[in-house]
Amino acid sequence: MTETESLLKIEAFIKTIIQPNKEEWDAFTEIIRFKTLKKKELLLEEGKVCNFIAFVNSGILREYSFLNGKEATLDFVDDNKFISDYQSFIMEVPSKQYLEALTDVDLLILRKDDINFLYDKYKIWERFGRLIIEAIFCGVEQKRKMIISTSLDEQYRDFVAAYPQILQKVPQYYIASYLGISPEHLSRLRKKPN
């Protein structure tokens, strides 16, 4: 994806949320850094402080960590979504997770210092940041409630509905890890009629 195409894609996304004027948009484009990851490449690793938020233009990333010595998939992030280790980013503490490319990925990187500059200078960007974080928080809260209150069958159906494109592009053992089940159990769920 060219830099021009990348900018057009994020501009279309942003304009569904806010309407920056030319000065505000130009200030935003000044802080963007373009990055490409190859499949299996890490965007972030455990122990590093996350000082960025990335916008995924194309591709799929996986958030994972190790729990009791076992790899656990926390989430998948694909086109037109932001990704970061938000706790590490906000608190400026070492990350406890990894961000890994599951496919080739085109990203736009926004560094924390640059984001804070935009927030201080342009109220519209502070509003945009708040709205994005609110949406991310609601998604995390929805997932937490789903884990507590639904069966594995329902969780799998919800996953299929929320991530249809990921089902075809991600190894099944990552999906099983995300759902907290064995690959064999996932295979049984997949074979059940809806």
Question: Beta-strand level of the residues, as a percent range?
Answer: 15-25%
What is the CA-based Rg, rounded?
A: 18 Å
Q: What's the architecture of one domain, going by CATH?
A: Sandwich
Amino-to-carboxy terminus distance = 37 Å
What is the ordering of alpha helices and beta strands? HHEEEEEEHEEHHHHHH
Judged by helices, strands and strand pairing, the structural class is: alpha+beta
CATH C-level name of one domain:
Mainly Beta
Shape: globular
Write down the CATH topology of one domain: Jelly Rolls
Which secondary structure elements does this structure contain, and how are they paired or packed?
Layout: H1 3-14, H2 22-31, E1 33-37, E2 42-44, E3 52-58, E4 61-67, E5 70-77, E6 81-83, H3 86-91, E7 98-101, E8 105-111, H4 112-121, H5 123-149, H6 152-162, H7 164-169, H8 172-179, H9 183-191
Antiparallel strand pairs: 1-8, 2-7, 3-6, 3-8, 4-5, 4-7
Helix pairs in contact: 4-5, 8-9
